[in-house]
Write a structure and sequence with these properties.
Elements (H helix, E strand, L loop, with lengths): L30 E6 L12 E5 L2 E8 L4 E9 L4 E5 L11 E5 L2 E5 L11 E5 L4 E5 L11 E5 L2 E8 L3 E9 L7 E5 L11 E5 L2 E5 L2 E2 L2 E2 L3 E4 L9 E3 L23 E5 L2 E5 L10 E5 L4 E5 L11 E5 L2 E5 L11 E9 L7
Antiparallel strand pairs: 1-26, 2-3, 3-4, 4-5, 6-7, 7-8, 8-9, 10-11, 11-12, 12-13, 14-15, 15-18, 16-17, 18-19, 20-21, 21-22, 22-23, 24-25, 25-26
Length: about 350
C-alpha cells in the first residue's frame, strides 16, 4: 500500500548540494503508522526549537516565512491540546537550538535575520518565567544541535561563517548563570543542519551539510569518558560499504527531524537537493537502519520533533510555498493505515 504524497518543493536557507540518486519513499514500506494530532495553535513556522519537560512538549521561536518569532507553546499529548506560555524575552530567531534539564528548558544560538546569536535563556515550566543565563561559550551560530545528558546540556556543530564541529558543555548548577566548558571536538566532519538524539546517556549525531555537500558519518558522544575518548564512529548512513546491509540506505540529508521511541531512533523529513518525507529507524543494538512508513503529511524541511513518555511527534516545517502547522505521532509497531490519518 502506498502512503499519501503531497507534491511540493523546498528551498533551503543556505545552498545545499545533492548527492541523492535513489528514491526517498518506498512504495513497499508499510511498517509504522502516522496519526494526526491537534494542530499547532501558533502561527505556522519552520526551524523552531523543541524540547520536553515532564510529560509536555514545548515549541519556541522559528520563522513564519516573513518574520522571526519568539512565542512559546506547550503541547499536552495526553489530552491533545496546546497552550501559549510566556514569550521568550530575547531576540526573535530561527535555526536556534535547545534542550531540557529537569523542569527547565533552554534555548540559545540562532539567527535573527542579521546576526548569528549566542545568548542563552532558561525557561522555568513551574513558574512560566524566563531567565537569561551565561552566553553560549562558543561562537554565535545557527543550525547547531543540542541535547542534555545527566544534568548537563550540550551544543555542537552549526554555522558561524564556517562549518563547525566543536562541542560545549553547560552546567546549570555552576554559579547563578551556569557555566560553559569546551569539550574535545567531534572526530567526524564539520556540519550544519544535523540531528542529535540521546539513548542510554550517549548522544548520537548524524546528517547535515558542509562546504562539500552532505555528510554520511555517524558519531556517538559519551560525556562520561575521558577527553579524547568521548567520541566514536558508527557505520556510515549511506551505501558506503561492500556489504549488502546498506544497499538501500538513503539517509544523508540536512534539516531533518529525529526522536527516540521504544529503544529505537527515527529520522524523517529534511532535504538534499529535493525534499524528503521518508522515515528511517535506527536499531542501537545492531547499528543498522531500516526504512519505515513515510511521514504522512507534506514533505518538508526544518520540521521539529520531540519524544514524550516514549511517544514520538513530528510537527511544523516548510516548503517553498508554505509554512506548516500540523503535528503527527508515529507508531512504529503498527501497520500503515491510510484512513487513520485524516
Amino acid at each position: 500500500m502506498k502512503a499519501k504524497i503531497v507534491l511540493i518543493c523546498i528551498t533551503a536557507i543556505s545552498a545545499l548540494f545533492s548527492s541523492c540518486t535513489k528514491s526517498t519513499d518506498s512504495d513497499d514500506t508499510t511498517e509504522g503508522n502516522w496519526i494526526t494530532r491537534s494542530s499547532f495553535e501558533g502561527v505556522a513556522r519552520s526551524e523552531a526549537v523543541a524540547f520536553t519537560i515532564g510529560n509536555k512538549g514545548y515549541i519556541v521561536a522559528g520563522y513564519d516565512g516573513t518574520k522571526r518569532l519568539k512565542d512559546l507553546w506547550q503541547f499536552d499529548p495526553e489530552y491533545n491540546f496546546w497552550q501559549q506560555k510566556a514569550e521568550l524575552p530575547g531576540t526573535a530567531r530561527n535555526a536556534a537550538t535547545g534542550f531540557s534539564i529537569g523542569d527547565k528548558g533552554y534555548i540559545g544560538t540562532g539567527y535573527d535575520g542579521y546576526n548569528k546569536l549566542k545568548d542563552f535563556w532558561e525557561y522555568n515550566a513551574t513558574t512560566d518565567e524566563w531567565t537569561q543565563k551565561a552566553d553560549f561559550g562558543g561562537s554565535g551560530r545557527y543550525n547547531a544541535v543540542a541535547f542534555s545528558i545527566a544534568g548537563k546540556g550540550y551544543i555542537s556543530t552549526g554555522f558561524d561563517g564556517n562549518y563547525l564541529k566543536d562541542i560545549w558543555e553547560f552546567d546549570p548548577n555552576d554559579g547563578t548563570e551556569g557555566k560553559w566548558t569546551q569539550r574535545v571536538s567531534m572526530s567526524g566532519e564539520k556540519r550544519m543542519g544535523a540531528v542529535a538524539f540521546v539513548y542510554n546517556d550517549k548522544a548520537y549525531i548524524c546528517t547535515g551539510t558542509y562546504s562539500g555537500g552532505t555528510v554520511n558519518d555517524f558519531n556517538v558522544f559519551d560525556p562520561a569518558q575521558p577527553e579524547g575518548q568521548a567520541w566514536s564512529m558508527l557505520r556510515k548512513i549511506s551505501n558506503a560499504s561492500d556489504d549488502s546491509y546498506d544497499d538501500d540506505y538513503n539517509i544523508v540529508r540536512s534539516k531533518a527531524a529525529a526522536f527516540v521511541v521504544n529503544n529505537k531512533a527515527y529520522i524523517c523529513s529534511g532535504e538534499n537537493g529535493s525534499i524528503y518525507k521518508d522515515t528511517w529507524e535506527y536499531d542501537f543494538a545492531t547499528d543498522l537502519w531500516e526504512s519505515k512508513t513515510p511521514f504522512e503529511g507534506a514533505a518538508r524541511s526544518g520540521a521539529s520533533a520531540f519524544s514524550i513518555n516514549n511517544r514520538g511527534f513530528v510537527l511544523l516545517g516548510k516548503s517553498s510555498t508554505y509554512q506548516y502547522e500540523d503535528i503527527r505521532e508515529f507508531f512504529p509497531d503498527q501497520e500503515y493505515n491510510e484512513y487513520e490519518d485524516q
